[in-house]
Amino acid sequence: MGVTIPCPACTVGSILIEPRMLATGSRFACNQCGAALAIAPGSVDTLERGISAYEKIKTRAASLVEQD
Question: N vs C: which end of the chain shows fewer Cβ within 10 Å?
């Protein structure tokens, strides 16, 4: 589940972020300027809860589609 965001440093490039890897401390860099993003250690729990909630919603939506 990758998410691409515009680079906040150069505004030209983009940064592909993998949320699960972000939660493990990985850094992700802009494809143009090399600026890197990482999550603050104090935000890891919040990110993990968000990923978990997203996965539950995704699973529930898939089960509703299968019922139709």
Answer: C
